[in-house]
Structures are given as C-alpha cells and as structure tokens.
Design goal:
538 residues; mainly beta; seven-stranded mixed sheet; 7 helices; 32 strands; 9% helix; globular
Amino acid sequence: MQARDRMPLLPVDRQIVLSIKQFTPEHGIPYYSFGDYAFNHSLVPILFTALSMGELASNSSVYGPQAQAHILQYGESIELLVYNDNSKDHSLHLHRGEYQVVEVGPYGDAVANNHTAVEFQKSGPSPMRCDVVTVRAYSYIKLRFHVNRGMVALFHCHMMHGGYFGLAATFIAAPELLQKYVKVPEEAIRMCKLQGIKTSGNAAGNQGFDMTGLPPPILVNRYAERVELFWDIGTLNISRDGYSTWKSICVNNAVPIPPVHVTQGDVLVLNVRNSLDTPTAVHAHGIYHNYTDYYDGAEMVTECGIPPGENFTYIIDTTDQVGNFWLHSHIQSQLTDGFRTPFIIHEKVKPVTYDEEKLLYFEDWDLRSFDDQMNIYSKLNAKKIPIAYRMLLVNGMNGNVTQPVVFEPGKRYRVRVVSLLTAFWLKFRMPGHTMHIIDQDGVACNPVEVDGLDLGPGQRFSILVTAHDTVEYNYKYNVTLYANFVNPLPGIIPRYYNGPIEYHQNAPLKHIPDVEDNQLSWSNTLDLQARDGMPLLP
C-alpha cells in the first residue's frame, strides 16, 4: 500500500535493532524479550522518571534493565529493524504514534517447514503508515518513524503470549522537552499515592543510578543453541602443498582445521587446550564481542594468551551477526603455520533465495615454517632478505588438486569465498558463470554483478551463482595468487590455479578464452551498497 497523502519515505538518522527472544523456565511459562531482559514494571512509572531525573533522564540506565529503554533525540528519523527469532508470529504496536512499513522479510513459516524462502518485500516511495504490524516467525521487518515531540511510548506485542510475558520496549523521546512541557495532574499523582507507588526518582525510586530495592530483572536466554567444541592445539607433520613436509598446526590431530558452522543466536563455547610449546590464543575475526573484550584473542592487547599445557574457554555470542568470519591465532608464526579456519554464522532466514551453499577458503603456504624463515632471515643482510614465494591451498590442500565444486543443473548456489591469506592477495573467477556479490565481511549488500573477486588477506564475500541447465560441460574456476610488493617471476609470482566445477564426471571441459584482467569487472567495496540502508556517517 501507498499512503494517500504521499508522505515520502523517511531518511534514516539512526537504526535500532531489536531481536525477539524466548525463554521457557522450569515452571513452563515462556518469557519473551527484545533483548537480554523481559520487560517488567518499574517501581516508578517511566514517564515520572523521565520528568524527575533532570539531565540523567537522557541516560537509559536510570530506567532499569527491565524497561528496555531507548533514548531518542528530537528530530531524529529512526529505523526500527525487528528480527523474530522464534516460532510464533507477533503483532507489534507502537503507542503514541505510527510508523512507515519499509521492508518485510521472507515468510518464516516457509523456512520453518524447509521450503524455499520468498524474496523480501520493499515499500514504494510513500510507505503506508500504521501503529500495528505483524512480524512472522523466523523473519524480520523494518519500520521508520520520526521523533517530532517529547514522549514516552511503549512498543509491545499485542498478543497475550508476547506482551503479557515481557515482549515490550520503551522509547523515551526528547526527555528535555517532556520536562519543559509536561505537568502531571495532581489527580494522576494521587492515584499513585493511593497505591503506595513512588512518583519520582529512577526505576527504583532512588536518586542517580542506585537501583536498591528494584526486583532483579528476568534474564531471557539469548541463545538458540549451545554449540560446544573442544580444541586440542598441537602440530602434525604433513605435506599440504604436495612439495614440502613440515609441522603444521592442527586441532585434535586434524589438518586442515575443520570449519566451524553455527546459526545466528547460537553461543559458541570453544574449549581450548594448548599442547604447543609456546602460548597461543584464538581470535574470532570480525566478531564484535560486545562487552566481552577478553574473548577477542589479541595476545597482550585483550588477554595474556594460553600458556603451554593450559586450558581456556572462549564464549562467542552470535546474536547480532551473520555471515563469513574466521578463527585464527593472533600470534603471527602460528597463523602462518596453519592455525586458521572459516567460522560461518548462518542466517535463520535466507537473505535471498538459493538452493545450496558451497564454501571455498584459501590459504597461502610457505615451503618452510615461519620460525625456519626467521632463522634464515636473521643471518642475512636486511637489504637482501628474499621473498618467500608462497603456494595456494584451497579448502586446506594444494590448489591444483583440490576436490571439485559440484553443481547440479539449474540450481542456484551461494558460494562463500573466504581469504585466510597472511601476506598475498588473490583473484577469483568462475568463467562461464555469472557472479553476484550479496555480502562482504558479514554485511549484506544489494546484489552487484562482477566478473571476479579481488581479495586481500582476511576478506570474505558471498556470491550467488546459477548453474547451467545441462550437464553437457564441466568448467573451471580460476585463482591468481599475487602481491604488488614483489617483482613478478614467470611461473613463480603470480601463481595461477584452476579448480574443477563439475556437472558430470564424464563431461568434457568447456573451453573459455582468457580475458585480460583490465577488461573485467572486479569486486570493489565502493561499488557496494549496504542492504540495511545505513546512511553515510557524519
């Protein structure tokens, strides 16, 4: 629908993300929330706190964790992104105003029943405004509204299974205007006093941030599932490139280290045993670690590392992120010697429609260990240090003998491309197929067609690729390992690798003429637009 008054789509000054969580305690009554805590009443009405706390009224802490309070500024345009992470639909109502319905996610009931999700729906230039909207199970919705006055507004589920059991938040808009223009009638104050309810102070009726007397909030289990892994970090003599055999860092005596897969909302519990003879640490590359900085794995920055023979447990919250990440040591020699693997956080609802996923991850690999290189370099004049020309590993092994990427005719694939490189860059192409980028480094973008990906160390992309309709031919993907800081040497740098895209074991290889790189369109972050519409920061 389009609003008849043609009010245009609001710009976005700030986005607020709310995720609907559910927790069922032992007594069996489920609680819901938009965050860590279920909404519950304060000892002082929220409006009265906003009116009586002076400048502190602009600090959400004075309203207590049970209020799920968000402070809004006068004149702001707010985008509200609501994820529904449970199996029930919710009818959401905004008091004191109305919002534009901007975007509706794929229907979650299709996903829950293992059907293909439909594409998301976007509004036109004059979105319909309403004060009640439905967010489907395992889906999401985007809403926008303008803060045009001071107010305290409740945002809540209008269904008993949600609203009565904690699914609410409060928006405190322009508290300085409330204090200037709102005077509560004496009759309203009398109603409070008759019931022994305080009419001033913070959520507990105290001054400042003293919450003495406020009942403890109901903590809602934020995690859909607890994924627990046990990693024993050691070394293993192995040839990974087909040329050299030396100690590679392994996990549980396995090389390559198996990729880690979780679903958004899971908590990853990573129990690490250090069986190396030096300290180690695990960094989850790209993960926010909100207020859990001590799990970031940056040795002597956020932690001391794990001494040899000791154990440590990392707890990684995936509530607020999806996409392609990786786990690696932040001690340079260990990263180079193989301590790295992809870490994939899957969406509960597909952002776009596709049939299957493929994962390709790339590593650069030296012909000798990092420590051996350093021993050689230390004996040489600094001006004559040789470049270590590296090999390419694809999914853990030699890039020219890796397993094929198997396509079925007509299917649409999401291919996750992850660079675990430490020093070199790479270019990736799938000649004969059309590639569309749909995310970079865990941020979804509007689809952009490219001929190839140009990845530096640590970069990650997802691309959509539709397979051909027949099994008449097989194809190859191409990878170029290169670095601009070294002089080219024929056959050495850049290095070229080809991997099979297999439609049928006996099909011939389709010949596709080579094209110069400067005639192709390559991935460029500046060409991508974030799908959430977050504007340019001031």
